[in-house]
Amino acid sequence: MPHRGEEMTKHNEKNDEAPMTNDEGSTNVQMTNRTSQSSTRNSDFVIPSSFNASPARTIRHSSLSEILIASATVLADLLPLIERNARVAVDTEADSLHCYREKLCLLQVSLPEGDFLVDPLAENDLAPLANTLAQKEIVLHGADYDLRLLRRALNFQPAHLFDTVIAARLLGVRGFSYAALVEKYFGIQLVKGSQKANWALRPLSPKMEEYARNDTHYLLPLAEKLEIQLIERGRFEWFQQSCERAIVSATIDRERDAEEAWRIRGSGLIRGREAAILRALWHWRDREAERFDRPSFHVLRNDQLIETARAVSRGETPQFRHFSERRARDFQATINAAVALKEEDWPETRKRRADRPTREMERAAEAMRKRRDQAASELKIEPSFIAPRATIDAIAADRARAEQLLVPWQRTLLGL
User: How confident is the model at residue 223 (pLDDT cuts 50, 70, 90)?
Assistant: First the structure.
């Protein structure tokens, strides 16, 4: 879990600050299963009773015969454990920082009986597991990314969701990363260090296994404590509304406009030939990344694409030492082709929106902002969690959008 209170977004434009590599000629690491080590990796510990909603209890990391569940037999043994629980903690790990198209690499499941790591890369049918989980209330921390990943990989959609980020924000908790919540409610500081690991590699290191288990280990007792506080403050129904919306939102695909995808952050002022060069380089980079199954930043970062487009328009061509001879030739050929384009083939300049809000819209938006800020002050929650500025402006322009953009408790607080 890339502690999602901080919302680390994973997609093809991944982490522009990551190092670049020359991936030509690299080979995939073979997957190997890791079994029968529970005798040395079964560390039990007790959550202090002063931090727990219920009496102190020992939670075992795993009671099954594999550290990483990769066999159909052991996977089948997990299902009855899930079936007898109404609430299940779940997290996922993917390889988005290490490949072109991310895949589900690890599924963590925590129950009162223990913490379990399921290997989606093993050749097992995970449909029974997905179907069993779908009938439960799933506890996730920052659910959107995990739900989208699970939907793509397993066609999974939960019947009920408990998102600990939504719960914490409704309670006015400012530091709502997973690590911050674990420290706040249990007095335990989690050890970081595996957020950017390559979760497709096998075997997992002991450090990665421990990190993965910790990502769900505290979710069930955390959900218990948050639920009690939500009920005490009369906000549990609000919480349920937001979680139901989160389930639906995760089923809506975010489609990338292929014609506009090259307009990356920082390119807003680029025009004319520079824009043509940037567009060509973006598509070249995307092809290179897909060809070698690496994230695009391994070829060039966004800021390097922009600087290259500007440099070429000045008559310069940057040299990148990590390029292979073949890649350097293709890079130069791409630049030459873009420079040779006629002006009519350059990208069109985006026109600024001419439809300025009317005075009536501005008055409506200001009235909603005042009601929002007053409610946020009284409830001691972030104003943007009630309604972001862009949402308020959209509703001021078209009142009918309120139901689409806000859940009932948010609309009520805004007087809609």
Answer: very high
